[in-house]
Structures are given as structure tokens and as C-alpha cells.
Specification:
The complex is a heterodimer. By secondary structure, chain A is mainly alpha-helical. Chain A has 20 helices and two strands. Chain A has one domain. Chain B is mainly α. Chain B has 21 helices and two strands. The chains are: A mainly alpha, B mainly alpha. Chain A binds chain B through residues 67-72, 74, 133, 136-138, 140-141, 143-144, 147-148, 151-152, 158-159, 162-163, 166-167, 170-171, 173-175, 177-178, 181-182, 184-185, 208, and chain B through 311, 314, 364, 368, 373-375, 379, 383-384, 386-387, 390-391, 393, 395, 398-399, 402-403, 405-406, 409-410, 413, 416-417, 420-421, 455-456, 458-459, 462.
């Protein structure tokens, strides 16, 4: 399996989209391209499992390494482990669904799909990079598309949100640059993640760089108090943009926190673990309580994202193997769930032209498919067994409980309490929207999901259910990667 | 004789073009439409010739010296002038005195070539003057605009002042060491207070040309008053040349007082980045906007300059190449729009994407490159400058530079937002960009996208050291 295909496919798709002659062609090109990417991602999963079961135990598989700039010792080094494979799969699912739900975009269709595919390219590249420089390059490549997607196709105070999001993410990037250069100079003039993992960097220096790295990636993953771009950005973005932002972009940050900050700077991680736990506990509770007060469906999902991503960060702060596996599961589960949630909200908004919970009611009678999906995704969000949210959150709590100090216990209990709040706001919002009599007579005329929307929902639901009902495969993928990280923390 | 021809081929070629233009001018003259392609071809020939037969050597008792790296620097400047002749062709065709314009511009270029190759303070001073005075005349080229002559006046007065300071510094250096030769100065430098004062005088003259804060006050007015091609020349070619020579001066001549100039460079670079960025935020005129952005960019170049090893010199040369593509693309679009609609304000760019998608994309690419956002080359350029600057290990400095990238992104996005998002009742009408301007913009665009991806360019520059 050549990983370059994973970059080539979106690149070709982007070119094909640009060459498309009319809107219909552009749509089909984008869909074909994203389906090819999805097939690649699935093929990668199969190939990866085949290699592993064939006894291949190297940390990274399908590695490729080309010199890029000799003078600075920069190599284009790519490879995947189980964590990256699952993240790539997540990206492919969300992007395909995103292309499908954007089917009816009439304004500058070509540009829209071009930018969307560019976002996917950045995410794929990020997840396969094994060189900090290349990783950072792919992280930053998404800045332009994000800005334009929100600013041009967004809704509400879109210019403000686009600016806020891009500038805050740029602040994260600024911190990452400094951390990256610190690693480069302390680690013997090397950007390579595999080499840096074996470099001897003294504890003092790790403590110096770790905050830069963790905060930098933390901005991307809505680390409290750097989360303020999330509600504005997510709610102003077009549906596919929100799906990408919440589903993938926030995971870039989480993946970076683990792969770069914690893995390369384990001593720093130990030093600051308690602060991470405190911040993420605040994020979990604060996010949940703020969500209770929201009336706009998109804001509800955006704030609940802050709360849910907090679980990932909390688990990272716990530094045990189960917790880190749980953190990764939560990232993937949340990515699928929140993307689906935004997709459904988009579908409802396209029909009712409102996102206010108070202005809707009884939609179950009018559009059974859409509301059923809404129910499923809501239940996943509050952690119903059988859906992915339960598996992930359970793993996080079990992993967190393994730390037996009072501090960790209190944090775990506080985080677990938030599930009650989640249940309150999810059930209230969905109940109000879907159940009861139809409050607005105009809503009786509305149609249920079209083929593309159904397909998008089914793709994402398949992901959620496959994790929820049979979490074993994901666990097998993630555990070895988490084990390596934990071994490094333990100094083995 | 052969050696003279070969080593000085860049200078001789430019001189030949100057004389040719002079003959054309005093002879029958040519219409702009015919003259411009001739000049463009000549400049291209100069550029191509400059890429071959580059060797190391010195002439006139070390007053003039050249190396492959210096030849590359000259070619980068030559490329800049060639691109200006392309992207600004719509404006150039309309000017009444095309031949004179190129006469002046090429004289300034000749001065820059000599400046980079200069081996002692005498030729340094002479060529710096040659590189400055014609530009002041060029700044006055919009003869019917009062602002243009005002800008030219400001420039000539303030450059005369800085020349005076430079001469004072040179005389002090000669008084202390008894030599003006670059190769002998480092051994004789004593690091005394007087010597440091002389250095500061000399440095401030260069800082003036680079418009480093606090020597930047002339920049915005001159940029705004001058015609766009002149502004482009000032902000790209002129700055590039001085940045190159600044490295020679700091790394070779003043190497013994490195710890002193390091502090100076760091302070000035932080000041330039902050003030350039903060002032750029509020600008309405696109040329003033680019003026302040260029001040901030120079502050960023100084981050690379500060550490003083091979890596930093490579990063600076590489960055200037990228900066040239990015800034000329931005100025190119500004010229095209100014030449056809006379509009120069950022608010006039509202809704540009609806009417002129090509120009908007080029402008957006250029601005993202200036802001250092991938996949554009500016990302690589800035990151390598930071890497170079980081080798001295002052992370606070790096953090300030990195955070300045946020401010700069904010104001570059203002223009992008105006072009792509804001609505406008009367946007700039669709413009039929001339063929050569289009070619120039495409070359710049390709340069912006590909220079970064092609890592061997960096390796090549490094190998020349």
C-alpha cells in the first residue's frame, strides 16, 4: 500500500473539480474522488490488519522517506500506525459525507468543493506525517480553505467567525512553531518524529517546550480556555465546513497533543499532567452547562463538542494506557458523531430555515428519517450503550480510575457527572424538535431526506454503529500505539 | 581582460542596456509598444546570461569581488527588475518617458550590483548613492500628481541625511583603523566605544534603506506617492540588495563585534515587526498597506540575519527570492487595477472576485505567501528564517516573531475578505489584463507555489556558500 496514493487521490480530485465544466460535473467529480479516498482508507485498514496479523511488528508500517531539504535535515517521512489508520478512516468518512450533504450548494460550487477537498488533503497529510516539518505544513494547509469556506458560504456573523477562528488557530500554530524549533535544536537538528523519540532531551528542556506544543495543539482541539473559536466557527460555517471542523480539525489537535507533545516530551507531560486534567475537567463541565442554555441547534452541538473533546484531553492527562486508548476512541467517536449531528442540523435547517429549538416541534411526523438519525446521534452523544459514545467514554473513565489518587478520582467523578447534564440538554433539544404536535403549520409541507442526505447519514451511522457494537477492531488498532506512548512515559 | 569581462558580466550587461536605451532615446526614439518588448527581452537576456560562467574572483585590488553566491544574489535582483517590467507593463505603456524610466531603474540596479560586490567602504558608499538617487527621480514619475513629487522630495532629503550619517561613520572607521578595505577591517577593529559608534552610524544608513524601525518614517509617504512600479522596485529589489549587503557587512566586516550587533539587530527587528504590523492594520490605501507590511517583513528578515551563520545567510537569500515573487505579485495586481480604474484603496477591492477572479486569486496567493501560510512558499521562507534565528537559542525572540505572524495574518486577511466576501454595488469592472502583465503574474504565481515545494533550491543556495 503506497501512502502517497492517499495524497495523490485528493490532489487529483481537486484538479478534476477545477476542470469540471458545470455544477453537476463538479459534484460528481468531488463525490467520485471522495469515494475513491474512502476506498483507499478502507483498503489501508485491510492492508494494515493483514500486515499486523502477518507478524509485522514495526511501529510504523508502509513507511517512505525522501530527503526534502538536506541543508536543514528535513525529510518527507510518512508512515502509519493503528492510530493514524483509524484517523484516516475517520477523515475519509466525514469528507465523503460532507461532499454528499453539500450537494445543493449553488453559490460558487466549484470553489466550494475545491476548498473542501483541499481540507481533506491537509488532514490525510497530517495523519501520515512522521516529520514535524511536514506535519506542520499539512496542519497549516487548511488555514486558507477554512477561512474562505466560513467567510463565503457561512451564515450569521460569518466574517467575524472566520477571522476569529483563523487567528486563534494561527496563534496555536505560532506556539507550535516555537515548540517545533525547540525540539529541532534540542533533539540534534532533526525534525523526524521517530528520531526525536529516541533523542535524549533533558527534563528541564522538555518542561520548557511542552507547554508550547500542548497549548499550540490545544488551541486546535478546543482546550479550555482557548476554545472560544469553536462555538462561533462551528455555528457560522456551512454544514460541510462544520462537519470538517468539529469532526476532523479538532482531532488534528488531539492527535498532535498525543503524537507530538506527549510522545516526544514525556517528562514534560508528567510535569503538566495535573494542569491538563484541571483544564479539561473545567471544559467538560463548563461546556455541558453552557450547552444547557443554548437555543440554537448548532450552538448546542458546538458547546457540547467542547465538553466531549474535554474527555479526550482529560484522558491524555491521565497518562495510563487505557485512558489514552480511550482518548483516541473518544476522538474518533466524537468525530463521527459530531459530523453526523452537524449534517442532520444542516438538513433540518435547509428545510425549516431555522435552527432555533423553540421554533420547531413535531418534526418526527414530517421527516421521520432525519429525526430518527437525530435521535440516534443524540443518544450516541449522551453515551447510550451500543453506540460509539458509550464505548469511548467508558474506556476513558476506566482508564482514569486506574490512577488512585484523590485528585484523579475527583476529576473523573466530575467528568462522569457531566453525562447527566448531557442527557438533559440532548433529550430536551431533541424532544422539543421532534416530538409533540407540529408547532409551525408550514413545516407540514416539508420533505424527508433526499438520496444524498440519506447516504451521508448512513455512511456516518455505519461508523458509529460498528464502533458501538463491535469495538474490538478499533481497540486492536489503537492499543499498540497507546502502549508505545505509555511505555515512553514510564521511561521504558 | 577576459577576466574582467567574465567577472563583471552582470554590471557590463546592465551598462550596455543603459547605453542602448540612451542611443534609442537620443536617436529617432521608439513608441512605447515597441520599446517595452525590446527592454523586456534585454532584461531576460541579462538574467539568462547571469546564470552561467559564475566564478569567484576579485578585481581592482579587492575593490570588487564576486562569488557564485553574489552572482546568484545579483540574478535574484535582475529577476525582480525583469518581473517588474512584465507585471507593470500596463502602467509602463502609458508613461510618457519609458526610456528614461528604465534608464533610471537600471542605473539603480547597476548601483546595487556594485554594492553587493563592493570590497571597500569607498565603493560601498558610491554604489549606495547610485542605487538611491535614481530611485528618487523615479518616485517623481507621476508628473501630474502632487503626491508623487512630495514623495520624491521626502526621499531625496531623507536619503541625503542618511548618506551624511553614513559618511560620518565611514570617516570615523577610517580614523580608527586607517583602512577602508573590507578584508582588512576585521583585524583592525578594536571594539572601542568609538568604533561601535561608527558601526551604529553605518548600520543606521543601511537601516534607513531597509526602512527598519525607527528609520522607517519616509517609507509610507514615498510608497504612496510614487507610481506602483517604483514602489515595487523600492520594496523588493532595493530592499533585497540592501539585505544582502547588510549580511556581508555584519558577518564579515563587523564580525569582531558580533555580540554588539546581535542585540541591536534583535531590538530593531522586534520593533520593526511590531510597528510595521500594527500600523498596517489601519491602512486604507493598498500601497501604504504594503509599505507597512514590508516594514514588518524586513523585521522578519532580521530574525534570520541575527544569528550570523551559513544557515541564516541561506535563509535570507531564499526568503528574498520568495518575497520577491509574493510582493511583486501583490504589486502587480495593484498596478493592473490602478492602471485601468485608478483605484488604490482596499475598500475598492470589495467584490473583486466576482469581476476579476484571476487577479483575485493571484492577490490572495501573494498575500497568503506574505503571511506565511502554506502551501505557498512564504511559509517555507518564514519557517527557515525562524529556524536560522533559533540557532542562537533565544526563544522569547522566536515567540515574538511567531506571534507577529498572527497580527500580519489579520491584516492580510482584510484584503482577502474584501475581495472574496464583501459585497459591492460598483466593483472594479472586468479588466482585460495585458499579455505580458498576465505572463508576469503567472510567473509570480508559479514562483509562489513551487519555490517552497522545491527543496533543492534551498540546498543549492546553501551549497554556494
Amino acid at each position: 500500500m503506497n501512502l502517497l496514493l492517499l495524497l495523490g487521490a485528493p490532489l487529483l480530485t481537486a484538479v478534476a473539480v477545477l476542470l469540471g465544466r458545470n455544477k453537476q460535473q463538479v459534484r460528481w467529480m468531488a463525490l467520485a474522488g471522495s469515494v475513491v479516498q474512502l476506498l483507499f482508507a478502507l483498503g489501508l485498514l485491510v492492508a494494515f490488519r493483514a500486515e499486523r496479523s502477518g507478524g509485522q511488528t514495526a511501529q510504523m508500517l508502509f513507511e517512505q522517506n525522501f530527503p526534502l531539504i538536506d541543508a536543514l535535515n528535513i525529510h518527507f517521512h510518512i508512515g502509519v500506525d493503528g492510530i493514524s489508520v483509524s484517523m484516516i478512516l475517520l477523515t475519509a468518512l466525514v469528507v465523503t459525507a460532507g461532499v454528499l450533504v453539500s450537494w445543493n450548494i449553488e453559490k460558487m460550487t466549484k470553489e466550494f468543493y475545491f476548498l473542501l477537498i483541499l481540507l481533506a488533503l491537509g488532514a490525510y497529510g497530517f495523519f501520515i506525517s512522521l516529520n514535524l516539518f511536514v506535519l506542520f505544513f499539512f496542519l497549516e494547509i487548511s488555514v486558507v480553505p477554512k477561512y474562505l469556506l466560513i467567510g463565503i458560504w457561512g451564515s450569521g456573523k460569518k466574517e467575524y467567525s472566520a477571522n476569529k477562528l483563523v487567528l486563534m488557530l494561527m496563534m496555536g500554530s505560532g506556539l507550535i512553531i516555537v515548540g517545533m524549533l525547540g525540539l529541532y535544536f534540542f533533539g540534534g537538528h532533526d525534525f523526524d518524529i521517530m528520531n526525536l523519540a529516541t533523542a535524549q532531551i533533558s527534563t528541564d528542556r522538555q518542561n520548557l517546550i511542552f507547554p508550547f506544543m500542548f497549548l499550540g495543539f490545544g488551541v486546535f482541539t478546543a482546550l479550555f480556555p482557548l476554545h472560544t473559536w469553536v462555538p462561533d466557527g462551528h455555528s457560522s460555517a456551512p454544514t460541510a465546513g462544520s462537519m470538517f471542523l468539529a469532526g476532523i480539525s479538532m482531532k488534528l489537535g488531539g492527535y498532535g497533543c498525543l503524537r507530538v507533545a506527549v510522545y516526544l516530551l514525556p517528562e514534560g507531560a508528567k510535569e503538566y499532567a495535573n494542569i491538563i486534567i484541571v483544564l479539561s475537567s473545567i471544559a467538560i463541565l463548563y461546556g455541558a452547562f453552557v450547552t444547557m442554555m443554548q437555543k440554537d441547534l448548532k450552538y448546542i452541538n458546538a458547546y457540547s463538542s467542547v465538553s466531549h473533546v474535554g474527555f479526550s484531553l482529560l484522558a491524555i492527562g491521565m497518562l495510563t494506557q487505557t485512558a489514552i486508548t480511550g482518548a483516541l476512541m473518544q476522538m474518533i467517536s466524537h468525530g463521527l458523531m459530531t459530523a453526523l449531528f452537524f449534517a442532520v442540523i444542516g438538513m433540518i435547517y435547509d428545510r425549516t430555515h431555522t435552527r432555533m429549538v423553540d421554533e420547531m416541534g413535531g418534526l418526527m411526523k414530517v421527516m421521520p428519517f432525519i429525526t430518527t438519525v437525530l435521535f440516534l446521534v443524540g443518544l450516541c452523544s449522551l453515551g447510550l450503550p451500543g453506540l460509539s459514545g458509550f464505548v469511548a467514554e467508558m474506556t476513558v473513565f476506566v482508564g482514569s480510575w486506574e490512577n488512585d489518587t484523590a485528585f484523579h478520582r475527583v476529576a473523573t467523578i466530575a467528568a462522569a457527572m457531566s453525562i447527566v447534564v448531557t442527557a438533559v440538554y440532548i433529550l430536551r433539544a431533541i424532544g422539543k424538535t421532534a416530538m409533540g404536535p407540529v408547532t409551525n403549520a408550514e413545516h407540514l409541507e416539508l420533505k424527508d431526506a433526499s438520496w444524498n442526505e440519506k447516504l451521508a447519514a448512513i455512511i456516518l451511522l455505519a461508523g458509529i454503529l460498528s464502533i458501538g457494537l463491535a469495538p474490538g477492531w478499533l481497540n486492536d488498532l489503537l492499543t499498540p500505539g497507546a502502549e508505545i506512548i505509555v511505555n515512553r512515559i514510564a521511561g521504558k | 581582460m577576459n577576466e574582467l569581462l567574465l567577472l563583471m558580466k552582470n554590471e557590463l550587461m546592465v551598462t550596455a542596456i543603459i547605453f542602448l536605451l540612451l542611443f534609442i532615446k537620443v536617436g529617432k526614439g521608439m513608441s512605447n509598444d515597441r520599446l517595452l518588448p525590446v527592454v523586456q527581452t534585454l532584461l531576460l537576456a541579462n538574467l539568462i546570461l547571469g546564470c552561467f560562467f559564475n566564478q569567484e574572483g576579485a578585481l581592482f585590488g579587492n575593490m570588487y569581488h564576486t562569488t557564485p553566491l553574489i552572482a546568484l544574489q545579483k540574478n535574484i535582483l535582475g529577476l525582480g527588475v525583469y518581473l517588474i517590467s512584465l507585471v507593470c507593463s500596463d502602467w509602463l505603456k502609458k508613461t510618457e518617458h519609458l526610456a528614461e524610466f528604465f534608464l533610471l531603474m537600471l542605473s539603480a540596479l547597476l548601483g546595487m550590483y556594485l554594492l553587493i560586490s563592493g570590497g571597500n567602504l569607498l565603493i560601498f558608499y558610491l554604489s549606495l548613492e547610485l542605487a538611491t538617487i535614481p530611485v528618487a527621480a523615479m518616485a517623481n514619475f507621476d508628473l501630474d500628481k502632487k503626491r508623487s513629487s512630495e514623495g520624491a522630495m521626502k526621499q531625496i532629503l531623507s536619503s541625503a541625511f542618511s548618506s551624511g550619517i553614513l559618511l560620518f561613520g565611514i570617516s570615523l572607521i577610517y580614523g580608527i583603523t586607517g583602512t577602508i578595505s573590507f578584508s582588512e577591517l576585521p583585524q583592525l577593529a578594536d571594539g572601542s566605544a568609538l568604533f561601535i559608534m561608527a558601526f551604529i552610524f553605518l548600520f543606521s544608513a543601511l537601516a534607513f534603506k531597509l526602512s527598519i524601525v525607527p528609520f522607517h518614517l519616509w517609507t509610507a509617504d514615498v510608497y504612496e506617492g510614487a507610481p506602483v512600479p517604483v514602489t515595487a522596485f523600492l520594496s523588493v529589489v532595493s530592499k533585497g540588495a540592501v539585505a544582502f549587503v547588510l549580511m556581508t557587512v555584519l558577518y564579515k566586516v563587523f564580525q569582531p563585534i558580533e555580540s554588539t550587533w546581535y542585540i541591536l539587530v534583535v531590538i530593531l527587528s522586534v520593533a520593526s515587526m511590531l510597528i510595521g504590523n500594527l500600523f498596517a492594520v489601519r491602512q486604507q490605501n493598498i500601497k501604504r498597506f504594503l509599505a507597512f507590511s514590508s516594514i514588518a517583513q524586513v523585521g522578519f528578515i532580521l530574525v534570520g540575519v541575527s544569528s550570523g551563520d551559513i544557515g541564516s545567510s541561506t535563509a535570507v537569500v531564499y526568503f528574498v527570492l520568495i518575497y520577491l515573487f509574493s510582493n511583486l505579485a501583490a504589486f502587480g495586481v495593484a498596478t493592473v487595477i490602478a492602471a485601468y480604474s485608478g483605484k488604490e484603496n482596499i475598500s475598492d477591492y470589495k467584490g473583486l472576485y466576482q469581476t476579476n477572479p484571476f487577479l483575485s486569486w493571484v492577490m490572495a496567493l501573494a498575500l497568503f505567501s506574505l503571511a506565511g501560510i502554506p502551501p505557498t512558499a512564504g511559509f517555507f521562507g518564514k519557517l527557515f528564517l525562524l529556524t536560522a534565528g533559533g540557532s542562537k537559542g533565544s526563544y522569547v525572540y522566536l515567540l515574538i516573531a511567531a506571534l507577529n505572524m498572527i497580527i500580519s495574518l489579520y491584516y492580510y486577511l482584510r484584503v482577502v475578505r474584501a475581495m472574496f466576501m464583501d459585497k459591492n454595488e460598483t466593483p472594479v469592472p472586468p479588466i482585460q489584463t495585458g499579455a505580458s502583465a498576465k505572463l508576469g503574474l503567472i510567473i509570480c504565481g508559479i514562483g509562489i507555489v513551487l519555490t517552497g515545494m522545491m527543496g533543492w533550491i534551498y540546498d543549492y543556495i546553501q551549497s554556494l556558500h
